[in-house]
Amino acid sequence: MLRRSVMLAGALAMSALAPTFAAAQETIQFGAVLPLTGTLAAVGKQVQAGLELYMRQYGTNVAGKKIELIVRDDGSVADNSKRLAQEMIVNDKVAIIGSALTPSAMAIGPLSTQAKTANVVMVSGTSSVINPGNPYMVRTSFTLGQQSQIVGEWAAKNGSKQVVIIQSDWAPGAEATKVFTDAFTKAGGQVMDTLKVPLANPDFSPFLQRARDLNPDTLFVFVPAGQAGTFAKQFAERGLDKAGIKLIGPGDIVDDNDLPGMGDAMIGVVTAGIYSVTHDSKMNKEYVAAFEAVNHYRPNFISLGGYDGLHLIYEALKKTGGKTDADALINAMKGMQWESPRGPISIDPDTREIVQNVYMGKIEKVKGELFNMQFKTFPAVKDPLKMTK
C-alpha cells in the first residue's frame, strides 16, 4: 500500500506538471535585435511599434502555438547585435530571429546559418545582406537599389543633367550611390562628385557647402531614417533650398517620422520610396489610425519591416502547421504574396528578397503639415543588383 501510495503521488505530481511542460512546448519564441538606443534609436522604436501593433491586431496564437516576442537593444552597435543574437539562440531558444540595421544583419546572418534559425531582416536595405551563404535569411524591408534606380531614371527624364551625391559612408549609402549613378549616367546624366558623410554624429554642413560650390542642378542624397531631420535643417541653413538646386533621393530622406519637424525647405523634394502615410488604400488608413492611436506619432516605412515581418512569420507557421524547422519555414516564405499597408508585396522565391511597389512622391504642405504625396507607381520592383547578377 505504501508503495502504491508513493507511485500514485508521483503520478499525480507528474500530471500536475504536464500542462506546464505542454505549455512550454507550445510556445514559439521570436527574438528581435533592435537599435532602441544609440545613433539610430528611432529606427528600432518604429520596428518595435510595428511588431507590437501586429500582435495586438492578430493575437499571439498561430497554428495552435503561442508566439512570444523577445526584444533586445543592441544600442546601434553590431558587436552587441551578434552577442545578443547568440544569447537568444542558445539561452532563450528562439525559433526565429529578427535583425535590423545592416551591420547588425551582417553580424547575425552567419549565426542564424550555423544554428539553422530562420532570420527575418526587417530594416537593412543593403542587397548583399541576403546571399546564398546565409540561406535562412528573408527580407521584409526594402533594398536601396529598388528606390535609387527608379529615382535615377526619373531624374534624367525630368530635367536633371548634373548631380552631386551626398551619402552616408556605410554599405547602404554605397549601394544607393552605385545604383543611382549607373541608372542616371546610362540615361545621359553626369555625376559631378560623390561626397561621403560619416555615419556617427554627422555634420552635413561642410558637404552641403561643397555641393553648393559645385553648382549642380540636382542633389541626390542618402541618409538613414533618423538623420533626415538633421540633414533638412542644415540644408535650409546653407540656403540650398533657395539656390535653385533640386533635392532628390530614396524615401529615407523624407521619413514620415521626421517630416513633421523638417520645415518648409523640404516642400517640393522628390523621392522614390516604398511607403507614405498618405498611401491611398483602406488598409493603410486603418494602419495609420491604429498606429497613431497607440504611439502618438506617425508610422514610417521602417515600421512596416516589423509589421510585415510578423505577417510573414505567422503565415509561414500556418503553412508548416506550427513547425519551426528553418528549412520548412524558409520554404513556406518563398513566393508568399500579401497585401500590406504599403501595397502588394511578395517574397522572390529565387532570392528571398522582397518585391514591392516603388512610388514617386513629392513633399507638400497639407493643413499645415508636411506630407509625402505619391504621384506615380512603379509596380512589383525587384532588387536591381540581384537582377543584374
Topology:
Layout: H1 2-25, E1 27-34, H2 41-58, E2 61-62, E3 65-73, H3 78-90, E4 96-99, H4 102-115, E5 118-121, E6 137-139, H5 144-157, E7 162-168, H6 171-186, E8 190-197, H7 205-214, E9 218-222, H8 228-237, E10 246-250, E11 270-273, H9 282-295, H10 301-320, H11 326-333, E12 337-340, E13 343-347, E14 354-366, E15 369-381, H12 384-388
Helix pairs in contact: 2-10, 3-4, 5-6, 10-11
In short:
With 389 residues, this protein is of the alpha/beta class. The protein has helices spanning 2-25, 41-58, 78-90, 102-115, 144-157, 171-186, 205-214, 228-237, 282-295, 301-320, 326-333, 384-388; strands at residues 27-34, 61-62, 65-73, 96-99, 118-121, 137-139, 162-168, 190-197, 218-222, 246-250, 270-273, 337-340, 343-347, 354-366, 369-381. The longest helix is centred in the first third of the chain and has 24 residues, at 2-25.
Describe this protein's structure.
The chain has 389 residues and is of the alpha/beta class. The chain is built from twelve helices and 15 strands. The strands form two sheets. Strands 7, 8, 9, 10, 11, 12, 13, 14 and 15 form a nine-stranded mixed sheet that branches. Helix 4 links the parallel strand 4 and strand 5 (118-121). Helix 3 (78-90) runs parallel beside helix 4 (102-115) and helix 10 crosses helix 11. The longest helix is centred in the N-terminal third of the chain and has 24 residues, at 2-25. Mean pLDDT is 92; it is low at 1-25.
